[in-house]
Input
Amino acid sequence: MISQAFRATTALLLVLLSACQSSSVEEDLALVGGFDPKTGALPTTVGQSPQIENIPPPDTGDPLIGRWFTRGADCQPPLDYDALVVRRADGYYTCDFNYGTEGRRVFAEGRWTRTGNIYKVQTLKSGDSYLSPKDPMHLIEYKVEKADQAEVWYRSEKTNKLFKTKRVDDSFVLPTYSSGS
Output
């Protein structure tokens, strides 16, 4: 049986990824708790990595494992947010989105995997809401176009948006913005 914490984590990731594919972020995202944006730590209630049928852990040594910064302006087309994604080797991820001059932060968590050039993300939690890992709406697929130890580029299969990310070290903190800056 899948724990409630695991369901929440997967739901969050799916919500965040779907936000990247929607015309309105507000329609798809809600603030998510239980994530430390500096360390990328998930809440302790998540525990061990329960298996979800379509989201096995990534291969050991997958270059997508680690801390990745997406500068929204570098994506094609440009996005209205920056993001810090932490992909763990056990298949969990966390994401901290910062929406420009709004100063609004959105957190997501869930599961991820990659097979060949197909990268999948499943959101488990959005805000205080746990999402069903069986709901296909919360599972998003990307095609990896570039993956090395410095950069990862992946394109949404649904919207054709290209996301460009750069590896960052543990001291990296997502930039904050203020009105008029």
